[in-house]
Structures are given as C-alpha cells and as structure tokens.
Predict the structure.
Amino acid sequence: MVGQIALPLGPLGRRDPSHIVVGPANGNIVEAFQHTQNWPYHTAIVFGPPRSGKSLLANWFEQARLGEVVDDAERMDETELFHLWNRAQESATPLLLTSGVLDWQVTLPDLGTRLRSALRLDIGEPDDAMLEELIGVHAEQRGLPLGDEACHYLASRGPRSHLGIEELVAAIDRLSLERKSAPGPAIWREALEEVAGPGNRS
C-alpha cells in the first residue's frame, strides 16, 4: 500500500516537499520509527541511494521529536560521532543516522563495533504503485499537469529509482517549457528516451 506522510509542522499541501511517499521501499523504516524502544543500543541507520528520501525521513523523525538525528553520518568526524553515540546511550535517547554509502566503512574501531550492532534500515527499489505516486508528487511540486494515465504510463516504462523518476519529471517539465505546450504523449516519450534510453518510448 502506498501513501504519504508529512513532517509534523501543521497543515501542508501535497506539493510541499516535506511530504514523503511511503510504500514497500521504505514502509519498514516508517514502521521502525514507531518502535524506537526496540532499536539495539537505541540506534538505527537508514541507508539509501541518492534522492531516495533519507533526509526527508530524518527530518520527519527529528521534527516528531523522536530522537537525535545525524544526516549523512559518514561525513561526520568519527570521534565526534562516537561521543554522540555514547551520550545517546547515557540518556537512552534514540539515535538515527543516515548514509548514502551502502558499505560505509568506519575506521575508528570502537565506533565501528557499535554501529555494526545498530538496526540497519535499507531503502529499497520502488514498485510500480510507488513510482506512480512519486511521479505525481514531483509533478505537483513543479505545477506540472500529469494525470493518473500519464503517471501509470511513465511508471511502467521509466527508471526504477527515486533519482531516475525525479530526473524524468524534470525532463518532462523542461521539454514542456521548451515546446510551450502541456505535456502529452509525445513529450512523455521524448523524456523517457532522454532519461531511460532508447526502447522506452512505446
């Protein structure tokens, strides 16, 4: 089942970029956020490819005041991160880390041992229903008129990743502006070929 959640910042429209499309690719992560008391050593790490919603999920977790957050944790000084982990243990505060490095190698031995014990949460590949929803959300954020038929057509032929879908909608938007016309099948097919390569136009 695919749906959306929004950051807890009051009423937000669907076009607000803080909305997160939730589906099979990330539903386990949202579920885990509801049960931080079960996290090993109060720590979880969300791994995912570029533009897959790691930061949105981290922001949602932080704004909901569920615990401490370090986005792109692989960029943080390891000694500082180790101290943060220790403070989280002392206060029993849930600690959420995100990383775009799927095989993140920690060089500080004590930190590496502790992070290997954390709950690992991977963002997976979206299914067709989630891809359709992602296309719709990106289109609405751009004010781009793409109905259900367009979303279904594009999802079944387009890239199978969050980043690829974002690039596809951006290409449709650009082509629509260049042609000075609403996006129709011809523009959909051209954008598909541009982003996904030949053979994705039919």
